[in-house]
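Final report, Chapter 2: Outcomes

The project's central promise was a pipeline that accepts a single protein chain and returns its three-dimensional structure in a standardized token representation, suitable for archiving and comparison. That pipeline is now operational. To close this chapter, we reproduce one record exactly as it appears in the project archive, with the input sequence first and the structure output second.
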Amino acid sequence: METLRVSGTSRPNAIAGAIAALLRSQGQVEIQAIGPAAVNQAVKALAIARGYLVGDRLDLYTQPEFVKLDVHEEERTAVRFFVQGIPAPTAPQG
């Protein structure tokens, strides 16, 4: 499974494109973000990626969790989003 690392300066549209591409090809992706600015950019990217997947009749499901990561020999707490592609719900006919 691919892991995308998001920083506070990451561009949400670029991350969203990567998320959508990986969900189309592999069905899942992991996103890691350390700090509030990075988590904010990751959440924006997830929302944008949902729009990118509409034409493919896909949606996404995510489970966020806190994890400990070693960064430059220092332990840091990150938010990890495990993201899976799921079939998009169909709109009711009316």
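Archive annotation: The two ends are 40 Å apart (CA to CA).
This record, like all others produced under the grant, will remain available to the consortium after the project formally closes.
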